[in-house]
Amino acid sequence: AQSVAQPEDQVNVAEGNPLTVKCTYSVSGNPYLFWYVQYPNRGLQFLLKYITGDNLVKGSYGFEAEFNKSQTSFHLKKPSALVSDSALYFCAVRDNSGAGSYQLTFGKGTKLSVIP
Amino acid sequence: NAGVTQTPKFRVLKTGQSMTLLCAQDMNHEYMYWYRQDPGMGLRLIHYSVGEGTTAKGEVPDGYNVSRLKKQNFLLGLESAAPSQTSVYFCASRPRGGGATAEAFFGQGTRLTVV
C-alpha cells in the first residue's frame, strides 16, 4: 500500500523568505509524486510532478520540489515566499505497479501562511 | 475552459435524505474519481471509474453509490445521508494517456452538511 506523510500541519514564513513544505512517501514500486495547492473555497490545482530524471522539479508559480530517493522525500520549496502563496498544500503519490485505477494517495495537507 | 464542473456547490441535507452530486468534465477523460475532504485527513477516495459503464470502490465507499452512464459524467449518490457524511466532496478526472504519470484535474468542490 502506498502512503504519504506531511509532518507539519502548518508552516508560517515571512514574506520574502524561502519556504519549505515537507513530504515523505512510501510505495512498493517506483513513485510518481505530485504537489497540489488548494486556495480557500477552491478545488485542487496541480503544481508539479516528479516522474523520473532530474531530482529537482520546477513547477507553477515559482515552486520547485526536490526528490530524494534515499530519504523517500519530496519537499516543496520556493526561494522567496509571497503572501498570495498562503494556501493548503497537498503532496500525493501514485505508484507505477500497473494497478488499473491510477489513483492518487494524498497526504493530510499543510497549511502555509505567509506573513507580510 | 470549463474543465471539471461540480453541481451543486453547497447543500444542506437532513439525516436520512438522499441526494446526487453531479460531476461533468469536458476534456474527454477516461478516468474519474470522487474524493471527500475532511479536516486533518486530506482527501480520501470514495469511488472511481476507469471508463464509461464501469465503477469501483475506493478507500471509503460505504454509504455512497456511483454511476458512469456517460463518459463525461460521474454521479455520486448518498442513499440515506448521515451526519458523518458532512464533508467537502471533490471530483477529479484524468486522461488514460500518460499512464500513471498524468496529473488529475479537480472540480471546485461541493460542501455538504448533514443535520
Strand portion of chain A = over 45%
**How many H/I helical runs of chain A?**
0
**Apparent shape of chain A:** globular
Number of helices of chain B: 0
How many strands appear in the DSSP assignment of chain A? 12
Biggest β-sheet of chain B: count, sense, barrel? 7 strands, mixed
* Distance separating the two termini of chain B: 35 Å
The helix/strand order of chain A is: EEEEEEEEEEEE
Query: Which structural category do the helix and sheet elements of chain A fall into?
Result: mainly beta
Mean pLDDT across the residues of chain B is 93
Number of strands of chain B: 11
Element pattern of chain B in H and E: EEEEEEEEEEE
End-to-end C-alpha gap of chain A: 41 Å
Structure description:
The complex is a heterodimer of chains A (116) and B (115). By secondary structure, chain A is mainly beta. Chain A is built from no helices and twelve strands. In chain A, strands 2, 5, 6, 10, 11 and 12 form a six-stranded mixed beta sheet that branches. Chain A has a four-stranded antiparallel beta sheet with strand order 3-9-8-7, with no helix packed on it. In chain A, strands 1-4 form a two-stranded antiparallel ribbon. The mean pLDDT of chain A is 91. Chain B has 115 residues and is mainly β. In chain B, 0% of the residues lie in helices and 54% in strands. Chain B is built from no helices and eleven strands. Chain A binds chain B through residues 4, 9, 32, 34, 36, 41-46, 49, 51, 90, 94-96, 100-104, 106-109, and chain B through 4, 31, 33, 35, 40-45, 48, 50, 56, 58, 90, 92, 94, 99-109.
